[in-house]
Amino acid sequence: MPQPHQPATGSLAKVAISRRTFLRFSAIGTTAVVSTGVVSSLTACSSQPNAAKGFAFLRDGDLKLFTALIPVVVGDVLQTDSHNYQALIINILQRVDGACAALGNHAQNEIHKLLDLLDGRITRWLTTGVSAKWEATTHGDVSDFLIRWRDSSISPFNAGYRVLSKLVAVSYYSLPESQVYSGYPGPMASMYQLVNA
Amino acid sequence: MAVDNIYDAGIAGGWKVRDASTFDKNITLEADIVIVGTGAGGGTAAELLTQAGFKVLMLEEGALKTSSNFKDMDESRAYKELYQEAAGRATSDGAIAILQGRAVGGTTVVNWTASFRTPDHTLKHWADVHAVKGHSPEEMAPWFAKMEQRLNIAPWAMPPNPNNQVLHDACAKLGWEWHVIPRNVKGCWNSGYCGLGCPVNAKQSMLVSTIPSALAGGAELVHHLRVETLQFTNNEITGLTGLALDKNCRNPTGIQVTVKAKHYILAGGAINTPALLLRSKVPDPHERIGKRTCIHPVVLTLAQMPQEINPFYGAPQSIASDFFQWKDGATGKMGYKLEVPPVFPAIASGILGNFDNGLRDDMAMLPHTNAMLALMRDGFVEDSQGGQVKIDDKGMPMLDYDISDFIWDGAKRAYLSMAEAQFASGAQKVRPAHLDGKWTSSWNEAKNQIEHLKYKKFRTALFTAHLMGGCTMGEDAKTSVVNSQGQHHQFSNLSIFDGSVFPTSLGVNPQLSIYGLVAQNATALATKLGAKV
User: Fold this and answer.
1) Region of B71 on the Ramachandran plot (φ > 0 left; ψ -120 to 50 alpha; else beta)
2) B367 vs A: CB within 8 A
């Protein structure tokens, strides 16, 4: 197993000085507002050598974070005990990955900074209050973290909340499986049938 | 029913269309006129200059996607294939989401078809304040008329969809000005899928109108090609270098395309055109490149209506209100135009801004959800000068955009107007798209909440779909990048024909402003270059 990536010690020192200074990941705020890029890019990107197997952007540690975030962001429309839950999670993770992989260089760097922050034990604890590894968190832990970032008076936390929640929400609600929960009946039937006839 | 995608037959009949991702060696191309970008500006220029007898070469960074690719009518595919950064583009701080197209046809492939002439107020302001000449309302009128005819632009004749009806009913009830939006469609099915690529070629985007016409007239198109730099001497452009992109239009393949032309036209839009000039390090003695980038900052409010309105179906934009747009003249308080956006599930889940069962509950109400938006008219006063396009260390564009108190004041008043409108139209619940936005059940309650919100980036959901400025036009080289005809102040053989030349925002959705201005300036260029038009 690859080692989880750790933030540089220089960064940790900065946390001690000023969280505000360190948290310069604000560029990610709404970057993912509607991104649901996709799977064809999975093998295209060589600039992220540490991406997890089968992914273009997200690393192993990032996958654990998003796996914890997905059921909390999307809520109980996801049946965690359903037989296809794992497949659905992978599908959502791939869409999150595709969205990140399609972003420009600057935004990708900012997202990596955010994900590094959430991966490092100390920085995670300092900024989110979560000390457990993501795979060991409860729904309540993750929910508390999201509320903390959403309601913070520090803008970069709001930005982090925006990007994480949007990446997950948009990735889920772009899937056909979600339509039953959004009431979207799918492509306008009369037109769809005719153009695909 | 098979829809003719236009390109299969055209290419079979000899159109010169090339995909740079398939190139296996460096090549040099020659043309009379090369056009970088194929959106509203590039497409319009390509057709006119081809008709004027020039050998035209169109270069496009995005892919060639046709109606055959749009048949799935799927949000996810559209964002990935037709939008900049898979629709994830944002300002450099991430606070403002940017919806901008990236394909043969540019943003015209994915816009919602609203087609307004540049308002007289705006044209007069440009003449008075920005030393723009030759573009008065009277001088522009024939060019708008020409492009309206070319692209079948007319006020939408069918009843508005229920989502637009909400705005209509509110305006009627409150006595606010409203109007029917002119659309560039022919044989429209009233489906609502304009933003995902029209599957029946009803939208008269550049993809199905001017570009096929130019190709039929002998022009050449190379897509999957990112123009990296311009080469130049003291007073003229001598060539440009493009990098072929892989089939996903993401990474360069390593193959270079060099172009030599007599005249060079930039039409990459208000982010990519200034970025290309910055990357090329062209002279910029007064540091104007990238400045005054206006975006019509957008704020939204959401409403739950008692009746089902299915905001994803039907012509996406057919009613607008200018009641708050020019109330205090061009340079008074921030003015804004009210419209509604189409609301598909993925984009809705991003706008809602909540999570867990709050998100679940709001998403479950999607068929009853009306979203209303305000396009704020930035760039008209000292306190609103637009943002700035810069490049990062890899030469890629970044847009810095600050929200001044002047703009925040506009955002607050826009929230108030929209909430009032939604309740007037019978909404059961209304909330602003803001992290502190809570559902309210009366106009008074909404008013109280909106007055007390924190107006800050990230707390306030901000969007833009209209990029304008960054290479502004004017007769004073100290304050502009090109003259009023779009010719670069330093280079006689370089023109900019896209939305980047606008000195301010427009106050209306931009496509027809670009078509009209470019038709006028490209025709003037053709004459200057010796054509008899």
Assistant:
1) alpha
2) yes
| Residue of chain B whose Cα is closest to the Cα of A33 | B350
Residue B433: its pLDDT value, please? 98
Mark yes or no for CB contact B87/A187 under 8 Å: no
Q: Would you state the torsion angle of the CA atoms of residues B236, B238, B244, B250, taken in this order, to the nearest 10 degrees?
A: -20
- pLDDT tens for B24-68 read 999 999 999 999 999 999 999 999 999 999 999 999 999 999 999
CA pair distance A159, A167, nearest whole angstrom: 12
Distance, in Å, from the CA atom of A166 to the CA atom of A164, rounded to the nearest integer, reads 6
Q: Is the pLDDT reported for residue A5 higher than 50?
A: no
- B36 strand-pairing partners: B59, B266
Q: Any idea where the domains of chain A sit in the sequence? A: 9-195
Picking from B80, B394, B436 by the largest number of A CB atoms within 10 A of its own CB, the best residue to mutate is B80
- Is residue B493 a contact partner of residue B264, using CB atoms and an 8 Å limit? yes
Name the strand (E) or helix (H) holding B162.
helix B162-174
| A164/A174 Cα distance (integer angstroms) | 16
Amino acid at B179: H
SS3 B473: strand
Q: Locate B117 and state its tokens.
A: 């002439």
**Which string of b and e fits B436-449 if b means at least 16 CB within 10 Å?**
bbebbeebebbbeb
* Distance between A130 CA and the closest CA of chain B, angstroms: 18
**Separation of alpha carbons B105 and B121, rounded Å:** 29
Residue A52: how many CB atoms within 10 A of its CB? Answer: 18
Q: What is the mean pLDDT of chain B?
A: 97
In the numeric block, which tokens belong to residue B286?
């007064």
For residue A119, give how far its alpha carbon lies from the nearest alpha carbon of chain B (Å).
21
Interface contact flag, A99 B357, Cβ < 8 Å = no
Pairing of strands B237-245, B252-266: antiparallel
> Do B323 and B435 form a contact (C-beta atoms < 8 A)?
no
User: What residue type is assigned to position A73 of the chain?
Assistant: V
CA distances from B350 to A192, B92, B150 (A): 25, 19, 36
pLDDT tens across B77-116, in order?
Answer: 999 999 999 999 999 999 999 999 999 999 999 999 999 9
- pLDDT interval class at A40 (50, 70, 90): very low
**CB-CB neighbors (< 8 A) of A28 in chain B:** 94
Q: Does B327 touch chain A (CB under 8 A)?
A: no
State pTM to two decimals: 0.93
Give dist(CA B163, CA B169) in Å, integer: 10
Break chain B into its structural domains and give their ranges: 7-155+189-290+478-528, 162-182+293-464
Q: Which has the closest alpha carbon to B268: B471, B78, B79, B123?
A: B471
- Token pair for B158: 């069918």
Report percent pLDDT > 70 for chain B.
Answer: 99
**Residue to substitute from B98, B354, B363, B392, interface A, most A β-carbons within 10 A:** B363
Tell me which architecture the domain covering B7-155+189-290+478-528 has in CATH: 3-Layer(bba) Sandwich (3.50)
Q: Quick check: B193 and A191 CB within 8 A?
A: yes
pLDDT (0 to 100) of residue A49: 53
Which of helix, strand or coil describes residue B181?
coil
How far apart CA B170 and CA B249 sit, in angstroms, is 44
**Reduced to 3 states, what is the DSSP secondary structure of residue B407?**
helix
ipTM of the complex: 0.95
Contact B220, B56 (CB under 8 A): yes
Pairing outcome for strands B27-36 and B252-266: parallel
Tokens of B131: 């030393």
Rounded mean pLDDT, A91-102? 97
B56-59 vs B27-36, strand pairing mode: parallel
